[in-house]
Amino acid sequence: MNLIVFEDSGVERLGAIAIGRPAYAITCASFRLIDRLETFDAHLLGLVRSHLSLIQLNDFPQLGRQLNRHSAWTLVVNARMVPSQANVNHLRQLFDLTGDDQQATTHARPVIVRSSWAVAAALVPTAMIEDDDEEGIAQFVASLGNGGSADCDSHDIDFDLFEHPHDVVRFNMSCFAENMQHRIDGGHYQQMAEGVFVADGKQPPANVVMDASHGPIVIEAGVTLGPFSYLKGPVYLGQNVKVSEHASLKDEVCISHTCKVGGEVEATVFEPYSNKQHYGFLGHSYVGSWVNLGAGTCNSDLKNTYGKVNMVYDGKKVATQMQFMGCIIGDYAKTAIQTAIFTGKQIGVGSMVYGWATENVPSFVNYAQTFGSTSLMSPEVMITTQQRMFGRRSIEQRPCDIQLIHDMFRLTAKERPAGLRDEPPQF
Q1: What is residue 341's three-state secondary structure?
Q2: What is the pLDDT of residue 187?
Q3: How far apart are CA 141 and CA 147, in angstroms?
Q4: DSSP assigned state of 369
Q5: CB–CB of 418/65 below 8 Å?
Q6: pLDDT band at 134 (very low <50, low <70, confident <90, very high)
Q7: 211-233 pLDDT, tens per residue?
Q8: Which residues contact 124 (CB under 8 A, 6 or more apart)?
Q9: What Cα–Cα distance (Å) separates residue 9 from each residue in 142, 150, 158?
Q10: CA-derived radius of gyration, the chain
Q11: Rounded to an integer, what distance in angstroms lies between the CA atom of residue 193 and that of residue 210?
C-alpha cells in the first residue's frame, strides 16, 4: 500500500500555524497527523508547498518521493486532517477496503471521500497514477479535487479537517480524551497513581498535586515537575518538558517535547521548543515552536459579554462558535514582560510584541502599538536570533532553516502595512 499525504489549497487559510510546517505536522491533542499515519503498514509519500520541500526532506525522511509500483492500491490523505482517533479509525475503514492488495487493476474504481469542498481521503488503484515522479503524483492528486475521476465510488465517512487556526484549539479539546486513551493503551507507560501514567517509571514528586478525576495525566520520559505545581487532567507532557514551580496546568493542556512551562495554562497546545517559564495566564490557545512568552504575559479567552468569540482572518470575520477562545501565536514570536493579548487575536510568525495586543499582530514586526510604534523585524535579525536559540538547545542551524525564514518573510508580506512589506536594502 502507498499512502500519500498532501497539502491542498485550504492550507493557506491555516496561516501562522502552518506557514513554517507541513499541515500534517500540526500538533493537536498530543498527536500530529504524521504520527498517526506512520502506524499504517504503508509506503509513505508527502506532497507539500514548495517552500517546505527541503524541510520535509530533512525533518521527515520517512516520507518518500516516488510510488511503490508493487503496491496495487494507494491511499490519499489530506494533510489538514485532524489527528484524532476517530479519523484514524475512518482511515482504517478505507484501508481495509483494499482486501487483497494484489487484486487491484486499472479497471478498479477509486473511492473518494469529501469534506465540504475538499478531498479528505481517497483510495485509488496505483495503476491509475501514470507518472512516478513527484510532479506527476501531485497533478493526479489535484485532479481528484477537480473532479478528474468522475468514474468513482463515494464513501459515507465524516472526516474532520482543520479549516481555520482556531480549529486546532477546538479539536484539541474534543479529541483529547480518545487520543489519550489510545496513548495509554499503547502499553509503554507505568501507572504511578490513579489516572497518572509515566513513561520512565519515575514517581512524581510528593509535593506535586495531580487530579486525574476528569481525565488522565500522561508524562513522557525526562519531564521535570517543579515543587508545588498542579496538574489537572487531562494533561499531556512530552519528553523533556520542564514545569516550573507553582505552575497550574489543567483541562486539555498539550505540551510538546522540550518546552518550559510555568504560570497558569488551560486547554492550550504548545509546539516543541517553546517557553512560557514564568507567571501569567494562557488559555484556550495555540503556541507555535521557538516561542518565548515573557514574565507576566497573559491572554484573554473569554469576552466580557460571555458571547461566542469571532476571529479575523485576512480582514474577514469568522465565527468560531466557541465561548472560550484565546490566541494563536506563530513560530518564533516573542512577547515582552507584562504583555496582554486580547481575546481571539493572532500573533504572526517572527514578531516581537510589547504592551497590549488589541488586534491581530502581523508577522515579522516589532509591535508596540501601546507606545505608538510598529516597525519591521527583518529576516536577518530573526536568523541571528534563531542561531542563538538553536545553540542554547545544541541544535545546528541548517541552510533550510535559514531559507525557511526568508520564505516566511516573503509569504507573509501581505499581512504587514504597505511600508513594512519589503526588507530594507543592506549597505
Answers
A1: strand
A2: 74
A3: 10
A4: G
A5: no
A6: confident
A7: 999 999 999 999 999 999 999 99
A8: 73, 74, 76, 110, 111, 144, 149
A9: 10, 21, 20
A10: 22
A11: 9
